[in-house]
Every structure is written in C-alpha cells, then in structure tokens.
Design a protein that fits this description.
313 residues; two-stranded antiparallel sheet; 10 strands; rod-shaped
Length: 313
C-alpha cells in the first residue's frame, strides 16, 4: 500500500483547447489557428487585366509626351489641361478595361495628330523660306538675271570680265608707219609693206589704207582687188618708160617711185566695180586722179592721194 501525501491545491490553469486532428485519406494534417488578415489592397484584390492596361497607358502617355516635346519646337504650343474636367472625355478611371483601352487608343491618335501637324508646319516653313534661285527674269542676291539667260552666274561673270579680242590687222605684218625717208625710186625697205597678194610692195601707210579699202571691196564683190604693179625703183621706172612710152611718167617723177600708187587688173576697175571704187575709195584716202581721167585715160592707175598731196604732187 502506497502512502500519499496531501499536496496543496494548485491554482487552476486556463485550459488550452487541444488541437483537433482530421483524417483525410491517410494523411494527417493539423488545422492551424486562423491568421490575421492584412488591411489594404493586395495583388489578389486587383483585377487580372488592370495592371497590363495601366502599364500600356503609361507607355502611351510617355510616347505622347515625347512626341509633343519634339513637335513643340516647330508648332505653337497647344493649351494644356489644368483640371480633370479639361482631360479628354474618353479617359476614365482605371478599373474599367474598355475605358482604359479607349484612352490608350485616343492618346496614340492624339500623338500621331500632333506629329502630323508638326510635319505640315515644317513643310509650310520650308515653302515660305526664301530660295537662292528664282525664275528667269527675277533676281538672285540683288543681281538682276535676264529672262533669256542660259548660263550660270559664274559663267556670265567670266564672260563680262573677259576683254573682247581685238580685230585682226587689215594688213598682217604691217604697222602702217612710214617716216617719209628716201627719195623717188630709192625708198628703204623699212618703209615698205607687202600687200595681200604676197608680191606687190608699197609704202606702209599707203598699204594699210589700201588694205582697208580691199576689205570693203571683198564684202561687196566676194574677192580681193587684183593688182598688177606697185612700187617702182628708179631702174624699174626707166624700163617702164621704154616699154609704155607716153603712158609712163619720166623716171624719178612717178608716184610709183614714192610707193604711193598701184595699177589694178581690168576685172577690178571695169564696169560697176569702177563706179563703186570711185564712190568709196576716197573715204580710205585712195582715188583715180583727175589727170588719169581727163588727160590720160588710165582707169587702172590709183594713188594714195592724201600722201601725194602732202608731197605737192
């Protein structure tokens, strides 16, 4: 027999509810006490389609803002909404999926419209800007351009600056200067020039004057004047006198001896050509002298009358 001792009574403890066990298909699980719920929104409380639309709306707004900043440099700044009432009517509070999609679409359309307006304004500015070239008859940089101009401004300037080429001399190789030295039949070679036929020589001043007359003659008749005789030395005058008798001057007195007379071929002084020479030759200092018309008929004999008159001939 076991002896027991009377122990003091302990205060009665609050009894904890014993955990209940449940059986389910052979697996034993314990049911835990219910957890305290957190206050505030959770991921599960959000609609499954709201957050993608929110992200898309944010991207659309960012794109519209960037496009508007780029367009602002070329277009007039559009008025901004300062209150919720000024916002587009299609934008509604998040949570309505259809309204959110409509808002994204509206924002994208507005961004495209702003960009298109900016491009149009840029094109209008380009058209209004002054151009460097205008239609013929206008002006470029203040310089008047003729209506029939076909060359560039650079070529026109070069053509204006280039000096015109001087006309060729009437008698190449002859400067037309004669000092008047020498005597009849003894004219130095330095005073003489060769005519266009390559053989006939006369005094330089007379030669250039006759060459000018020949140019005018050639324009009218299409050929040069034909010449048979020019300067005659003293010995040549003697030979001519012997050959022609009274038709030739006394040696030492002929104007051929001064290099101031020529004899023409019949085809040059005949018919209407003689009339033309009589009407035009004096303007160049040449003529058929009176004695060759009235005293001795020599229509072929022509003299540089200006110089002959100076010499007292």
């Amino acid at each position: 027999m076991r002896h027991t001792r009377d122990l003091p009574a302990l205060p009665e403890a609050t009894a904890r509810p014993a955990p209940t066990r449940a059986r389910a298909k052979g697996r034993h699980t314990a049911s835990h006490a219910a957890r305290r719920r957190r206050t505030g929104p959770t991921w599960s409380s959000l609609a499954p389609t709201s957050w993608p639309l929110s992200i898309g709306l944010g991207l659309a707004v960012t794109m519209a803002t960037t496009t508007g900043m780029a367009v602002a440099s070329n277009t007039t700044e559009l008025p901004r909404a300062t209150s919720p009432e000024a916002a587009p009517s299609g934008v509604r509070a998040p949570g309505d999926a259809a309204a959110d999609l409509a808002a994204v679409t509206s924002a994208a359309k507005q961004a495209a419209l702003l960009a298109d307006r900016g491009q149009a304004a840029s094109r209008n500015a380009d058209r209004a800007a002054p151009t460097t070239s205008r239609a013929a008859g206008g002006s470029v940089g203040g310089t008047v351009v003729p209506a029939d101009a076909t060359m560039s401004a650079e070529k026109v300037a070069l053509s204006v600056e280039a000096a015109p080429e001087p006309p060729p001399p009437p008698l190449p190789g002859c400067d037309g200067y004669a000092s008047g030295t020498g005597s009849n039949g003894y004219i130095p070679e330095s005073e003489m020039c060769t005519l266009w036929d390559g053989t006939t020589r006369i005094r330089a001043d007379a030669g250039v004057a006759l060459a000018r007359l020949n140019l005018a003659y050639r324009v009218v008749f299409g050929e040069n004047m034909c010449i048979t005789d020019g300067y005659r030395s003293y010995s040549s005058q003697v030979a001519t006198k012997e050959a022609k008798g009274y038709l030739a001057a006394t040696p030492g007195t002929s104007n051929h001896g001064w290099g101031l007379a020529v004899d023409l071929c019949p085809e040059t002084y005949s018919g209407s050509r003689y009339d033309w020479l009589r009407a035009n030759a004096p303007a160049y200092g040449w003529d058929n002298p009176d004695w060759a018309i009235y005293d001795k008929y020599e229509p072929w004999h022509w003299e540089y009358t200006d110089a002959v008159t100076e010499m007292g001939g």
